[in-house]
Here is the input.
Amino acid sequence: MRPLSSATPAKSEGLVYAAAPEREAPTPTPTAKESGPADATRFSPAVSDDKHEDRPLPAVGKWAGDDKAVRAEQDALAKNPYRQGQDVGTAKANQESDKALVDHVCGKGCGCSKMSGGGSDDPLKSLEKRDAEVRQHEQDHHSEAGEFATSGPQLETVQASNGSSYAVGGNVKVDVTELADPSKTVAKMEKLERAALKPAEPSDQDRKVAGEAAAKRAKAMGEMSARGQNPNHSHAG
Here is the structure.
């Protein structure tokens, strides 16, 4: 016998009653468990005992709270990129790995702003931010150095758990040799000083190059003065 479609649900536990035939009730036989609470056992169709009291059956279908749990899981997947397409264990391991990577490279490289979010739940955002800053920093050096740059931006990268590479440091090589004409040396070193200090946050190495250029510029200006030339006249183009 199957529960009737018009059966009335019990108010206390959400269970379904079956029609009660007038015969002696056999002993209930356990069958497969539902996918609900661990102690929920489904019995064979309910029958009446001598007093015509129906025995309840567990509700069939989703258990209370399943829909809410599914929605919560979907929200978590949407907010946490580590959970998409990964089991919980793998997602957690990848997240911790990227956090350690952020902590390792924080403050390293070209001297752009410190990486934020080392302890955040989304270290990939910190790596993305760092990547953008590093690329802009090195591009500032390269564009300002102009003809005195001997290389393009050279980037140091790391690979995160998602397989993507992120720039965490870099450099641009420049020619800081002095020229035969001290006036041209002055113009060149002025340009290289500007190039070294062009980024919003120059690194210690940037300041070192700027200091070297400033010293050579001062030396060239002294030579110009010794020759009776105006050291304040720049040939920068």
Summary: The CA atoms of residues 74 and 143 lie 46 Å apart. The longest helix spans residues 123-145. The beta strands are 30-33, 41-43, 154-159, 165-171. Confidence is low (pLDDT under 50) at residues 1-20, 32-49, 57-64, 109-113.
